[in-house]
Design brief:
The chain is built from twelve helices and 16 strands. It is of the alpha/beta class and about 350 residues long. A seven-stranded parallel sheet has the order 3-2-4-1-5-6-7, with helices on both faces. Strands 8, 11, 12, 13, 14, 15 and 16 form a seven-stranded mixed sheet that branches. Helix 5 (about 135-140) crosses helix 6 (about 145-150) and helix 10 (about 265-275) runs antiparallel to helix 12.
C-alpha cells in the first residue's frame, strides 16, 4: 500500500494581519472527514490562538513558542511535523508562522524533509495574509513584511472592507510593485476564502535558490514582553530581578499588592486599549479577568488599534492572577509605548 503524502500549507503575514482568523474560516468549508492539524509558531509564551483553535474542528493544534521556527527553532518544527505525521496521519498540515518569519527558509526546510522522508511531506503552498488597514505603514519599516509579500504563491488581502477605495488602491500598488505576478485575493470578511483557491497549488517557490540565501536577522525587528497582574508563577520564566513594575522599578515575585489578582473593570480595559499607539505596539494578546455585569475571563486579541474579547475558561488564569498578556512591537520603543497600559491596569513587565 502506497503511503499518502501530507500536503503542507504555510501561512505567513505580519503581526495582526489576521492569519488565525483566515485559517479557522477554512475549516467549515472542508469535508467533515477531512483531518487538518495546525502547527502554530508565535513569539511570547501565552497560548492564546491555540485556545481559540482548539474550539474549532481542527484534528489537533500544536504550538511552538518563544522564538521563530524559520531560524532558531528549526529543529522544533521538524520534530513537531514528525509527531503530527505519526500521531494523527492528517490529510493536511497548516503551518501558521510568527509574524516575522521568512517564508523562503521554511520552504526549503519542508522541501528537505520531503526528500529525507521519501515523500511523507510536500510543500503545497505559501499563503501571505496582508492587513489592508496597516500594510502601507509597516511595509515601509519592515523588510520582513516586504519579503513575505514577495515570496508567496498567493496574497490574501484582509480587512479591506474598512478602508477607502483610494487606500486599497495604494495597498494594491505597493503589492504589485513587490510582486507583480502573484494572484491577490480579497478575503470575504470572517468568511475568509474558498479552500479550493489555496489548496492544491503544489508550490515551486523552493526552486528559487537566491531566496534561501537571505539572512533571517528579522528577529531583531520585533520586541516581545510579558505583562501580568498578580502572581507570575507558572509563566515558565526564571523569577529574578528582571520583573519590572508599572512604575519602572525592578521587583521580584511576591512584591505585589494584596488586590493584584482582582478583576479589571471592563470600561477601564477598553479605555486603556484605545490609548495604545499602533505605531510602536503591534500586538497584545492573552488572558484578562474582567469585571462587567459578572466576573469573566476573556481572551484579548489586540492588533493595530482593533481588538476582540472572546470568552474563555476561567482556568486560563490562576486564582491569584487577573492578567497575563504578550505584547509585541517595535524594538526599543515597546516598553515605553505600553507604559500607560501597565500603569492604568497595574501590570508588571516580565
Amino acid at each position: 500500500m502506497t503511503k499518502a503524502t501530507i500536503p503542507i500549507t504555510v501561512f505567513t503575514g505580519f503581526l495582526g494581519a489576521g492569519k488565525t482568523t483566515v485559517i479557522l474560516s477554512l475549516l467549515p468549508k472542508l469535508p467533515k472527514d477531512y483531518k487538518v492539524v495546525l502547527l502554530k509558531n508565535e513569539y511570547g509564551d501565552v497560548e492564546v490562538d491555540s485556545k481559540l483553535a482548539k474550539e474549532s474542528s481542527l484534528t489537533a493544534v500544536s504550538e511552538i513558542l518563544n522564538g521563530c521556527m524559520c531560524c532558531v527553532l528549526v529543529g522544533q518544527m521538524q520534530n513537531a511535523l514528525f509527531e503530527i505525521r505519526d500521531q494523527y496521519h492528517p490529510d493536511r498540515i497548516i503551518i501558521e508562522c510568527s509574524g516575522s518569519a521568512f517564508p523562503a527558509t521554511l520552504a526549503f526546510q519542508i522541501r528537505e524533509m520531503e526528500i529525507n522522508t521519501g515523500g511523507d511531506f510536500k510543500l503545497d503552498s505559501i499563503i501571505t495574509v496582508v492587513d489592508a488597514e496597516n500594510f502601507a505603514g509597516y511595509e515601509d519599516t519592515s523588510p520582513t513584511a516586504k519579503m513575505q509579500a514577495s515570496y508567496t504563491d498567493i496574497i490574501l488581502i484582509n480587512k479591506w472592507e474598512s478602508v477607502s477605495d483610494r487606500q486599497l488602491d495604494t495597498v494594491l500598488d505597493h503589492l504589485h510593485t513587490l510582486n507583480d505576478l502573484t494572484p491577490k485575493l480579497r478575503c470575504d470578511g470572517r468568511n475568509g476564502v474558498d479552500p479550493n483557491l489555496i489548496f492544491g497549488i503544489e508550490s515551486k517557490l523552493f526552486l528559487d535558490k537566491n531566496a534561501h540565501n537571505q539572512d533571517p536577522s528579522h528577529i531583531e525587528e520585533v520586541e516581545t514582553l510579558t505583562l501580568y497582574r498578580g502572581s507570575a508563577a507558572g509563566l515558565g520564566h526564571k523569577h529574578d530581578d528582571d520583573h519590572v513594575h508599572a512604575d519602572g522599578h525592578n521587583g521580584i515575585l511576591g512584591n505585589r499588592s494584596p488586590d493584584s489578582h482582582q478583576s479589571i473593570p471592563l470600561e477601564k480595559l477598553k479605555e486603556s486599549l484605545s490609548e495604545l499607539s499602533k505605531e510602536s505596539v503591534w500586538r497584545v494578546k492573552g488572558f484578562v479577568r474582567v469585571q462587567g455585569a459578572n466576573v469573566e475571563t476573556f481572551i484579548l486579541n489586540w492588533a493595530f488599534g482593533r481588538y476582540d474579547l472572546t470568552q474563555s475558561d476561567p482556568s486560563a488564569l490562576t486564582e491569584d492572577s487577573s492578567v497575563r498578556l504578550t505584547a509585541m512591537g517595535e524594538r526599543g520603543e515597546l516598553r515605553r509605548a505600553i507604559g500607560s497600559l501597565c500603569k492604568t491596569l497595574g501590570l508588571s513587565i516580565l
